[in-house]
Amino acid sequence: MSLAPRAVLVHRRTEYEELIGRHGTHGQAAFFLSSRGRSLDEVVDRHHRTRQALREVEAVVPLTWRSSRVERADLDRFLFAPEDVVVVVGQDGLVANTAKYLSGQPVIGIDTDPGRNPGVLVRHRSADTAALLRAATAGGRTDDLTMVEAVADDTQRLLALNEVYLGPPGHQTARYRLGADGDTGPGEAQASSGVLVGTGTGATGWLRSLWLERGSALPLPAPCDRRLLWFVREAWPSPATGTTRVSGILEDRQGLRLTVESDRIVVFGDGMEADALQLTWGQSVRLGIAETSLRLLA
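The line above is the sequence of Inorganic polyphosphate kinase; the predicted structure tokens follow.
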């Protein structure tokens, strides 16, 4: 007998909750902000809107379904199941934070603060949740958003919806060799502040800023395009390091290979630095298009 669907509600601590966690009480948080010419009222209003949206979403989960809540900080310890319908309640970035832990489950993005969030990934309102849950289990239309994958030579694997960053854990210089996956040569020796490999979804964020800074002629991909762009950040020319491979396109079945030549390089996706791969001297990692896509309800 098949299991009933499970609605998994993904959320994060609000700014108000973070302030209370830091300052202890509402009064202390209000004093801290007022002493800097800021008011706590706006933060409290956003907190109430977010909590109200969560209540509204939870209230319309069908009685025959199971349900669960998971906070962003616990995503790396939460076990998603194939029958899950994932409801992300919050900002666009929270959808990206969640995507790396999924394997084809349908995702519904609920915008808790319309007008403040761009709404690229959180496309719906809490009042639409009941209809969206029905659509998710009835084969409703989804956009399959391309993801990027990093696979290390020790089988560590990382997925990201926007971008994967490879670089030094601090402000030092990363040293490595960079080349196309499958090349027989060792690749170009480089020294830089890191490498960024991004998707069409990421083309509205960090990837776009690099693309604009370079004045790049490479066409930015759309979210569903099976194409990635990559850039080397601040490559340093020297007698031992080159700068001839600093940007490019990756299509299906193409990959970029980086081999570490420094003490430590971290690899993380979508800003989740706390959940990073750790690579050391001599290790290599392949970057390319992931087989898994994010199934986001349109």
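Note on the example: Residues 9 and 69 are 5 Å apart (CA to CA). The radius of gyration is 21 Å.
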